[in-house]
Amino acid sequence: MSYPFHIGENLTACAAARDISGFVSLVERNFQVIMNAPSESWSVKKLRLSALVSLVVRAVYRTGASPAALQRLGLDCYKHLSKVRVGQREEMRSLLLGFSHQALKLIPDSFRRQPSLLQRFLKEVNESQQAPRGVQSVARSLDVSASHLCRAIKMATGRTPSEYIRLAKLSRARDRLLTMSVTQAAADSGFGKVTTFISHFHRHYGETPGAFKKRMSLDALS
After folding, report:
1. Average pLDDT score over the chain
2. Would you state the pLDDT for residue 2?
3. Burial readout 51-60 (b: 16 or more C-beta within 10 A, e: otherwise)
4. How far is CA 62 from CA 16, 87, 97, 103, 200, in A?
5. pLDDT tens track for 111-126
6. What domains can be seen in the chain, in order of their start residue?
7. Cα(5)–Cα(37) distance, rounded to whole angstroms?
């Protein structure tokens, strides 16, 4: 699987839910994707790992963590990252996972005790067993107006609720492609038109659903 992995919005959701295992698992999956890229140099891989550190910092910052403390932690990770020599893969992995655990400890207690609208929204969108719904429907289930939800989520994350819902649909569809046809995966994930699904999937993942499905089938056989 090529990088960038589908991560940023899921990291924010895990941080908001205080899902430590899910958060660290996402970081490790991205680490493996970056390090297993066969055609990239060590210096390029280090740059991608630095970008991963930035995503962790941004996700935890959105929970209300102290910017100064996060900055110190992030800079310390960058410093140690720059000193890791070629081939020290396990040292790199331990550094990133340890950094992720430390970053999560910076989430304020008040954020953990009282779920914010952002937390509730992300939980509603990402953990529902049903296909992701529209903004109006999600807003009703959260007992807020659609306009208030849009303002709150945009202010907290820089993204609109519609973007999060579309990403949740894409993530669901990608999982369904392992066992369903492209048409079935699109319908099951809430896409009204297959052409719309294919367009969004290609734009986000850099390949068509058909190409992804074929590649996953070949990987399973190898």
Report:
1. 84
2. 46
3. ebbebbbbbb
4. 8, 34, 19, 12, 26
5. 555 567 887 888 888 7
6. 8-111 (no CATH), 160-222 (1.10.10)
7. 12
